[in-house]
Amino acid sequence: MRMLKKSIPHLFLMAYLLIILYPFLFVLFSSVKTDNQAIASNPFGLPSSIIFDNYVNAWVNAKISTFFFNSLYIGVLSACLSILFAAMLAFAVTRMRYNRISAILFQLILLGMLIPNNSLLLPIYGMMRNLNVLDTHMALILPYVANAIPFSVIILAAFLRSIPGEIEEAAVMDGLSSAGMFFRIMLPLTVPAIVTVFIINFLGNWNEFLLANYFLSSEELRTLPVGMVGFRDAYNTNYAQMSAGIVFSVLPVMIIYAVLQEKIIEGVTAGSVKG
Fold first, then answer.
1. Close Cβ partners of 153 (under 8 Å, ≥ 6 residues apart)
2. Would the pLDDT of 270 be above 70?
């Protein structure tokens, strides 16, 4: 009975995992089938023969490669810039001796997380139009960086608070300035939190659709989520190639989560335990 009680939660988790993974497995199996007839005749089964031409056609003919690298470039650059600005702000509010100002700034940062991003669509659109950057990648990079700063500051500030003050005092005794202390001491010590923030921000930028759909009109500038909508409209009669395009959009996210999930947990829980 004791073993049965212990196994019941695991059985529920396994069932939940199968429910979550089943749609992706269906898409994965459909992407290597020959045509729509093969999918319709055996929609939930393994393919009788594996065909990789669907991936080649989706990558080349449907411009998935262009959309893929646009998303990769925008996602990586935006995540790196948000980490740089957020790390400097987190260092200022946690390690510099301006307690009242730091507390007010941190509260304002927390307020930034309470505003839904979708409600800011029209103001952001007006700002990008005034800056004359619409239909350029900069129209996405600027909002992505700004939206990621509040969450990034909270994670990095929690990690910076857990660093012993003796390290900071030793750096001051060695003659380091605030900038030197930040780049030489604090930034290397916050690598686990930085990795976590980078992954979360990158995945958010990678999957973002609303701003990319309204701010970019040129096809060669579109990101992968927006490109997949056009791909679906153009290839809605070829479900095998459409499934291959979906795999291209999902696979990088799954790989990042599978490889770096421990870093995500380590950074999120930073500063939660003292001692």
1. 86, 89, 90, 93, 106, 109
2. no
